[in-house]
Design brief:
Blueprint (H helix, E strand, L loop, with lengths): L9 H13 L38 H14 L41 E8 L2 E6 L5 E4 L14 E7 L2 E6 L1 H5 L16 E5 L4 E5 L1 E8 L4 E3 L9 E5 L4 E4 L1 H9 L2
Parallel strand pairs: 2-11, 5-7
Antiparallel strand pairs: 1-2, 1-8, 3-6, 4-5, 6-7, 9-10, 10-11
């Protein structure tokens, strides 16, 4: 079919061409159907569910305010039970330091009362003294002694003096055992002998001094006799040591 020539817009011409391809015949000059507007499209109507009628009633103020408070009081929590914790007594032991009592002067020997005479003598360059009341006699020069086996190093042997058997004591070895060289024999040819303990023992010394009278205040008595067990005290003016004759006799007689 020959259509009369007419002028169409490119858009309409394209639409006619597509219709011809699809087999639809429509005059070229017929108006192209227009698409319906959105407002003309019918939409399905959704039915709303019917709402239940609402009952409106007035509530008294007592029910709104008072009753909730009463219910809250009825459902109050259980009372809290307070448990008392027993008190634990902690005893703190405080160590008390013993009070140090001021010490007076140490007791003096029985022979040291009032004024008492002492004899000074020298041993290995040192000055000593002994109470004159405890001195039996004084001798000099020992010819020879007899030493018995198994005796102490300070025991120089037995000799006869004025008809008595006397044991001679090396005073330096007894009082100052670390001062002399071990094994060195003492020279007894020019020694003085101070007899003690009823004359049974004799202390060997190098030289004799003077006899002086002393008082208790002239001597600083030893508080610890175990340190220098043979020393009773120190004579402060002469810086000499006075011997403890009782301790010496206990040592030599117990050997």
């Amino acid at each position: 079919m020959i259509r009369p020539p007419s002028l169409h817009s490119p858009k309409d011409a394209l639409g006619y061409y597509l219709e011809d391809l699809l087999g639809e015949s429509r005059p070229l000059d017929s108006p192209r159907p227009t698409a319906p507007r959105p407002s003309q499209i019918l939409r399905p109507v959704m039915r709303q569910p019917a709402l239940a009628p609402v009952e409106v009633r007035s509530v008294p103020a007592r029910e709104l305010l008072v009753q909730p408070l009463l219910r809250a009081l009825e459902t109050r929590p259980a009372p809290v039970v307070l448990t008392t914790i027993p008190q634990i007594q902690i005893q703190t032991q405080v160590e008390t330091q013993p009070q140090i009592q001021p010490q007076g002067p140490p007791p003096a020997p029985d022979w040291a009362s009032g004024q008492f005479p002492v004899l000074f003598f020298d041993i290995a360059g040192r000055r000593f003294a002994l109470p004159l009341v405890l001195l039996h006699s004084v001798g000099k020069r020992v010819a020879h002694t007899v030493r018995l086996p198994g005796q102490a190093s300070w025991n120089l042997g037995i000799f006869v003096h004025r008809g008595d058997k006397v044991t001679l004591v090396d005073t330096a070895a007894l009082l100052m055992p670390g001062l002399l060289h071990p094994g060195s024999p003492p020279d007894l040819s020019n020694r003085y002998l101070l007899r003690l303990g009823g004359g049974r023992w004799a202390l060997a010394c190098d030289a004799l001094g003077q006899v002086q009278k002393l008082t208790l205040d002239d001597i600083r008595w030893h508080r610890n006799p175990g340190r220098d067990r043979f020393i009773a005290g120190v004579i402060t003016k002469q810086l000499s040591m006075i011997l403890d004759i009782a301790a010496i006799l206990r040592a030599v007689e117990g050997n």
